[in-house]
Amino acid sequence: MITVIGIYIFIVLGFFAKKRFNEIDGKTLVILSTYFLQPFLTLWGIMLIPINYDLIISPIAYLAAVFVSLLFTFALTFLIKDKKEKIIASLTPLIGNTGNLGIPLSYALFGDIGASIATMVNLANIFFIYSFGVFFFASGKYSFKDAFFKIIKIPVMWFGILALIINISGVMFNKDIMKILQMGAFASIVVQLLIFGIYVAEIKTREISTKLGIITVINKFIIFPLVGFFVLKMFNLKPLFLKTVLLEIFTPLAVTNVNLSALFDLYPRKVAMLVIVTSIIFVPVIFLII
Known about the structure:
It is globular and about 55 Å long. The protein has a single domain (about 1-290), classed as Na+/H+ antiporter like fold. It is mostly helical. The chain has twelve helices and no strands. It is about 80% helix and about 0% strand.
């Protein structure tokens, strides 16, 4: 519990840092994290333990849970008439903050194994966001070719593949190399938490419809976890792996949702407020999970 509070301390630091020093540029930190620090985190996370069946099947089970849950989250949006809000309420709950929050939280709660599982799930989430997710946000008007090029530009994907190849080959790094990777990984974790706090501080709107908010929260914290649990059980994951993937499912809406909604004119201010709402709700939810 103390460790979880520590996670939120860094988020709060990012929030107040932005409020106190407005010149802090969140985009610079995003570039630093995405292109320079997250590769360390990905290598470290995947190389912590030897690859086994459960570690490989975890991201596959997560994606299966996402796609099956989409059927149910979309069905619940029949109460919403606005087409854009339908997309927001059905899709954004499935794009969780598995990177900025999920990885550090999984490591804090479940140690090295938790970090490895969360790293694999985050790779799966990135793939979903920049392929099917982008296409869905654009309501079928976006090119899969463009989405594909977005994926290949993300170094995390390539370092993830590299780490998987090295690990599957039976090669394990020595302690000195792992310490170097760990320094980069921990730096990435702290920077990502600070970024999350900075993004929240930059959201100045309170624009959100009550119906959209309620349905999104239900899809995020009830529909997705329930459907996800039954889907994950079908894969016969070991208890620790099941708990970690479920934790990733519970993570609040990712800030990426705001970026995508702004790109495709899907009420970005409403989505931004949903990020804050789900992040606040996640605090008591995580303590209940623990």
